[in-house]
Amino acid sequence: MTYLVLLGLLVSLAVAFGGMFGNKPFADKHRKLSLFGLIPAHLQWVIGVILYFVSPLGLSNFSGEAMGDSVSRLYILEHPLTMIIAVVLITVGYSRAKRQIGTEKGFKSIAIFYALALILILIRIPWNAWPNN
């Protein structure tokens, strides 16, 4: 699912940058394309919240001792908090853009907020837990 989030954000950013540099007005079709970044991010957030409360690496591991361990702190605090901020940024960017249909500002809103969210997601993905391909 994480791959879908990353792909969706990249597609949305490509559309936004293409529209910005193409001097096109932000249309309803562009709004719909930006949903490729919004929907997977929200679905992943819901799955993440469930896992946070069910997984032994999540809330049940929360303690002062675990905060001293960088890997435990990543799973308990840093990753969830950063992902919440990223999803909020994506939501704000989409909400602002859908009110700016017909102007060029919609592309700028998507580009700025989705790019910030993508950066946050990339810096707080627990890369050491991903399978080696």
From TrEMBL:
Per its UniProt entry, which superkingdom is the organism in?
Answer: Bacteria
Keyword Membrane tagged: yes
Going by the UniProt record, its keywords in alphabetical order are: Membrane, Transmembrane, Transmembrane helix
Asked if the record carries the keyword Transmembrane helix, the reply is yes
Its transmembrane ranges are: 6-23, 35-54, 74-94, 106-127
Q: Specify the protein name.
A: Cytochrome B
| Species of provenance | Pontibacter actiniarum
